[in-house]
Amino acid sequence: MAAPIPASLASLTRRPLPLARNRVYRLWRGGALLDRMQGQPDPADRNLPEEWVGSTTVSRLPGRPSDEGLSRITLPDGGAVVLKELIEAFPEAMLGAAHVAHLGPSWGSSASSSTRRCVCRSNLIRAPPSPSSIWGPPSERPKPP
Question: Which of 68, 87, 112, 121 has the fewest CB atoms below 10 angstroms from its CB?
Answer without folding.
Answer: 112
